[in-house]
Amino acid sequence: TQTPLILGLESSCDDTAAAVVRGRDVLSSVVLGQAELHAAFGGVVPEIAARAHAEKIDHCVEQALMKADVTLSDVDGIAVTAGPGLIGAVLAGVMCAKGLAAATGKPLIGVNHLAGHALTPRLTNDVPYPYLVLLVSGGHCQFLLVEGPEEFTRLGGTIDDAPGEAFDKTARLLALPQPGGPSVEACAAAGDPSRFPLPRPLLDRPGCDMSFSGLKTALLRARDGAMAGIGGLREQDRADLCASFQSAVSDILAEKSRRALALYLDRSPAKPTLAVAGGVAANGAIRSALQAVCAELETEFVAPPLALCTDNAAMIAYAGGELFTLGRRSDMSLAARPRWPL
Ligand code: KG4
Ligand code: ZN
């Protein structure tokens, strides 16, 4: 049997995306961002996101099919993110996918957005099961033992904010553009990471749970300290604050990865691989910190290319392909789910 050709759709947050994938071969991956629509509001506005997805998704699908040089009739299945995410946003993708499935008679496959991120290392690097993945994004932060396309065991994760959220809040506090991750990373390049001693919460506790909310309070205090007396923030202060924040997040993720690898080895005798996934995995400092831990522990480290770390539909099509091969199909009752733990 031939590897299925899958059209994937993604619309769970603020990126409208479609892709055509056959196995590990990404024939096309189109991502239409909405950053400019939300810029004035300092964060993603759910209503605006949902409307923009509904307006753009058809065009996005057309582009993906055209770039892959295939038509809908060549496709074996239509995979769509069915959650978790902003309900109106997810719904826009699910409605579009149902329409395409109904019109063509092609099978529909509902995919969990987090599974899409967690399976990305298999799309980019052919990583065999089982492996350990650190999923770090705007809404999520967890260590998962991945034993199959539907078999995820959570070993630990954040007890409050996700690191992407912390990056976004840091950007807001320092008047940097959204999304915060890339702008904080760029600003940190010229900064001194040791200037502001920010906390590394929970590092003294066993296990691999994490906390990031105390970090933003500490950052706010450090910022106000730097502004005191001069009434504003100097460029160098801003860079030092970004670098100090990024280094705190890197330290937390690196130390907890060490713990997660130990937990993983308790459960699985196979040679460990640590993969990262999710938007925050695009961060260079975080990648290097994790790379260093893996080098030290003689563990394989896999970090997908940036475009496949942040939200995209290739990961949804890939995950959909694995599910398709297992015989999984969704029907027209497929629901959009705001919450859907793995
Ligand atoms: O996975 P993703 O695209 O969307 C979901 O949350 O599912 O992740 C988006 C998050 C945002 O919070 C963004 O600020 C963060 O990933 N991000 C980064 C970087 N690029 C994106 N965080 C740190 N450094 C980056 N270079
Ligand atoms: Zn995501």
From TrEMBL:
<keyword id="KW-0963">Cytoplasm</keyword>
<dbReference type="InterPro" id="IPR017861">
    <property type="entry name" value="KAE1/TsaD"/>
</dbReference>
<keyword id="KW-0808">Transferase</keyword>
<feature type="binding site">
    <location>
        <position position="117"/>
    </location>
    <ligand>
        <name>Fe cation</name>
    </ligand>
</feature>
<dbReference type="InterPro" id="IPR000905">
    <property type="entry name" value="Gcp-like_dom"/>
</dbReference>
<feature type="binding site">
    <location>
        <position position="168"/>
    </location>
    <ligand>
        <name>substrate</name>
    </ligand>
</feature>
<feature type="binding site">
    <location>
        <begin position="135"/>
        <end position="139"/>
    </location>
    <ligand>
        <name>substrate</name>
    </ligand>
</feature>
<feature type="binding site">
    <location>
        <position position="181"/>
    </location>
    <ligand>
        <name>substrate</name>
    </ligand>
</feature>
<comment type="function">
    <text>Required for the formation of a threonylcarbamoyl group on adenosine at position 37 (t(6)A37) in tRNAs that read codons beginning with adenine. Is involved in the transfer of the threonylcarbamoyl moiety of threonylcarbamoyl-AMP (TC-AMP) to the N6 group of A37, together with TsaE and TsaB. TsaD likely plays a direct catalytic role in this reaction.</text>
</comment>
<keyword id="KW-0479">Metal-binding</keyword>
<dbReference type="InterPro" id="IPR022450">
    <property type="entry name" value="TsaD"/>
</dbReference>
<keyword id="KW-0819">tRNA processing</keyword>
<dbReference type="GO" id="GO:0005737">
    <property type="term" value="C:cytoplasm"/>
</dbReference>
<keyword id="KW-0408">Iron</keyword>
<protein>
    <recommendedName>
        <fullName>tRNA N6-adenosine threonylcarbamoyltransferase</fullName>
        <ecNumber>2.3.1.234</ecNumber>
    </recommendedName>
</protein>
<feature type="binding site">
    <location>
        <position position="113"/>
    </location>
    <ligand>
        <name>Fe cation</name>
    </ligand>
</feature>
<feature type="binding site">
    <location>
        <position position="311"/>
    </location>
    <ligand>
        <name>Fe cation</name>
    </ligand>
</feature>
<dbReference type="InterPro" id="IPR043129">
    <property type="entry name" value="ATPase_NBD"/>
</dbReference>
<feature type="binding site">
    <location>
        <position position="185"/>
    </location>
    <ligand>
        <name>substrate</name>
    </ligand>
</feature>
<feature type="domain" description="Gcp-like">
    <location>
        <begin position="26"/>
        <end position="318"/>
    </location>
</feature>
<comment type="similarity">
    <text>Belongs to the KAE1 / TsaD family.</text>
</comment>
<dbReference type="Pfam" id="PF00814">
    <property type="entry name" value="TsaD"/>
</dbReference>
<feature type="binding site">
    <location>
        <position position="283"/>
    </location>
    <ligand>
        <name>substrate</name>
    </ligand>
</feature>
<dbReference type="GO" id="GO:0061711">
    <property type="term" value="F:tRNA N(6)-L-threonylcarbamoyladenine synthase activity"/>
</dbReference>
<keyword id="KW-0012">Acyltransferase</keyword>
<dbReference type="GO" id="GO:0005506">
    <property type="term" value="F:iron ion binding"/>
</dbReference>
<dbReference type="GO" id="GO:0002949">
    <property type="term" value="P:tRNA threonylcarbamoyladenosine modification"/>
</dbReference>
